[in-house]
From TrEMBL:
This is Outer membrane protein transport protein (OMPP1/FadL/TodX). Its main location: membrane. Keywords: Cell outer membrane, Membrane, Signal, Transmembrane, Transmembrane beta strand. It is found in: Cell outer membrane. Belongs to the OmpP1/FadL family. Residues 1-22 form the signal peptide. It comes from the Bacteria. The lineage of its organism: Bacteria, Pseudomonadati, Planctomycetota, Planctomycetia, Pirellulales. It is a multi-pass membrane protein. It comes from Posidoniimonas corsicana. SUPFAM superfamilies: Porins (SSF56935).
Length: 418
């Protein structure tokens, strides 16, 4: 039994491990690479088009999904991150260097299933997922002068949520996610990939203001990870500090969304989301980042009942701090402020603009839907003391959804022909 568990864990990490983000908001992905929302800039708070997005944002939207739906999404993210360091960090053994990160691209998997309970006269839908939640990775091991500088963060979420149709117009939802995370770096010294675990709650509402307009809101709690015995800092001359823990939080997040499908006889869906992420209250990130606003906007046009075209745009603030703090995650780098600025350059949250597009095909096979999307994050650069970084990325994703609506929850006889 123990061997089976270890094998399953290893396979799960094989699917998710590597640098997961590059197009994230800070380090969090939300709906940017889910099958349908990914083609609409990640928009999903008021009227999501895939099950995965209900579990990355507003759990109240689960109430929109009927019957049994099982969806598997996969994607590839290819980032390009360059670091130009002119600082000399004698205790860390880092000297000036200019290099491109050799961290490879990432394969992502997002899996979700939903089940409604209308068969029991309960206006509720439950959802369960296995989702890539956050990540970032850079690797400068092959750069002369870097002294093996590298950093990697990955968060894998297992959310369980429920959405309830309270009235004809109002829906409410709640969600709890159990997460496992791995941190490697970014401090110079002796360290290894260290695992931590965390919990995160989420409450949401949707309200149909009119027959064509839906409003959405959610509040997501902060999530804390403690990576025990994560690093021994280099003190120069071959000496190292005692082993230290690293504390890292993902931010409390507020999301607002609106959608409207009044135009073109209901065939055109317009949707926009606003996110506010409180990184300034997070261990680790408050040393290098400020709070962040994110704006997402997407459109979906139904060419035919079974064919949908999607476009999206997202804007995320450059939330790098001008004046970095002395301690990062409870650890004080021995080279002082230049060392913290060097860490900032390894975690560049600097890219404001992203675009995406996609296509959705309903009933590609009877009861099976296909969604495809692709996008890119435009290059941006920033300077942190004597260190600077630039980043850009592109990604592609797809998803297959199986709908078991007929003959299941609604107890209708399954037809012999579709």
């Amino acid at each position: 039994m123990r061997k089976t568990f270890c094998l399953c864990t290893a396979l799960a990490w094989a699917c998710f491990a590597q640098s997961a983000s590059a197009q994230s908001f800070g380090v969090e992905l939300h709906g940017t690479v889910t099958p349908a929302a990914g083609g609409m800039g990640g928009v999903s708070i008021a009227q999501p088009q895939d099950v995965q997005s209900t579990l990355t944002g507003n759990p109240a939207t689960l109430s929109r999904f009927r019957g049994t739906q099982f969806s598997v999404g996969a994607g590839w993210v290819e980032p390009t991150i360059n670091l130009d360091n002119d600082a000399t960090l004698p205790l860390a053994g880092v000297s000036p260097f200019d290099a491109k990160s050799s961290q490879p691209g990432s394969s992502l998997v997002n899996i979700a299933v939903s089940q409604d309970f209308t068969a029991f006269d309960l206006p509720a839908t439950v959802g369960l997922g296995l989702l890539t939640g956050a990540g970032l990775g850079v690797n400068y091991l092959d750069a002369s002068g870097s002294n093996g500088s590298a950093a990697s963060l990955l968060v894998l979420n297992v959310p369980l949520g429920v959405g309830v149709q309270v009235t004809d117009r109002l829906a409410a939802g709640a969600q709890m996610a159990v997460s496992t995370s791995v941190l490697d770096g970014p401090f110079s010294g002796l360290g290894a990939a260290t695992t931590a675990y965390g919990l995160r709650g989420n409450l949401g509402l949707t309200y149909n203001a009119t027959d064509c307009t839906t409003l959405g809101f959610y509040w997501m709690t902060k999530q804390s990870f403690r990576y025990e015995d994560a690093v021994r800092l280099s003190l120069g001359g071959g000496a190292f500090s005692t082993v230290q823990d690293v504390q890292l939080d993902l931010p409390e997040t507020f999301g607002w969304g609106v959608s409207n499908n009044r135009l073109m006889d209901g065939r055109l869906l317009l949707a926009s989301d606003i996110l506010y992420k409180r990184y300034s209250e997070c261990d680790f990130f408050r040393a290098i980042w400020d709070d962040q606003f994110v704006f997402q906007s997407g459109v979906q046009y139904s060419v035919r009942p079974n064919l949908k075209l999607r476009l999206g745009y997202a804007y995320a603030e450059n939330n790098m701090r001008d004046a970095a703090a002395a301690a990062v995650g409870g650890v004080i780098p021995p080279d002082g402020l230049p060392a913290v600025q060097f860490i900032q350059a390894q975690f560049p949250s600097i890219n404001p603009h992203r675009i995406s597009g996609g296509v959705g095909v309903r009933d590609l096979l009877p009861g099976v839907d296909l969604d495809l999307n692709a996008g890119g994050m435009f290059r941006a650069a920033d300077t942190f003391g004597l260190s600077s970084a630039d980043a850009e990325s592109y990604w592609i994703a797809l998803g297959m959804t199986w709908r078991f609506e007929r003959g299941s929850c609604r107890r209708l006889p399954a037809p012999d022909r579709w």
